[in-house]
Amino acid sequence: MNLPANLHYTKDHEWISVDGDTATIGITDHAQRELGDIVYVDIDTLDKDIAQHDVFGTVEAVKTVSDLFSPISGTVLEVNAKLADAPETVNSDPYGDGWIVKMSVKDASELADLLTAETYGELIGA
């Protein structure tokens, strides 16, 4: 199981990487394995303010649709355009080219509520 130590994680299986006042968000390796083959990523929150824990989009796999919950509060700045034509990139590279959105960081103190790689690994039994 791939759990990069430099990322923060949520109990809902999202990861977040923060660079200055911009965060990159995606779903974890564990989440993409549980979902199976991802066929569509739907993000309708571009340029919208999202509160921590609110839904910012969905990921559709062959047999299910899963909500995406924001690890932090902020504004959705960018949606990964590659996913429109190649949603399976989330399966093949969840921590790299398979990122889903970039957001502004409204309140950096919210990061303290997130899980470390070690704690997330314990949560999923990795």
From TrEMBL:
Domain Lipoyl-binding: 22-104
Subunit structure, interactors included: The glycine cleavage system is composed of four proteins: P, T, L and H.
Entry keyword Transit peptide: no
InterPro entries per record: 2-oxoA_DH_lipoyl-BS, Biotin_lipoyl, GCV_H, GCV_H/Fam206, GCV_H_sub, Single_hybrid_motif
GO biological process entries: glycine decarboxylation via glycine cleavage system; protein lipoylation
Source species: Hymenobacter ginkgonis
Free-text function comment from the UniProt entry: The glycine cleavage system catalyzes the degradation of glycine. The H protein shuttles the methylamine group of glycine from the P protein to the T protein.
UniProt keyword terms in alphabetical order: Lipoyl
Cofactor section: (R)-lipoate
Gene from which this protein is expressed: gcvH
Stored Pfam families: GCV_H
Cofactor remark from the record: Binds 1 lipoyl cofactor covalently.
Protein name (database record): Glycine cleavage system H protein
Modified residues (N6-lipoyllysine): K63
GO cellular component, one term: glycine cleavage complex
The family this protein is said to belong to: Belongs to the GcvH family.
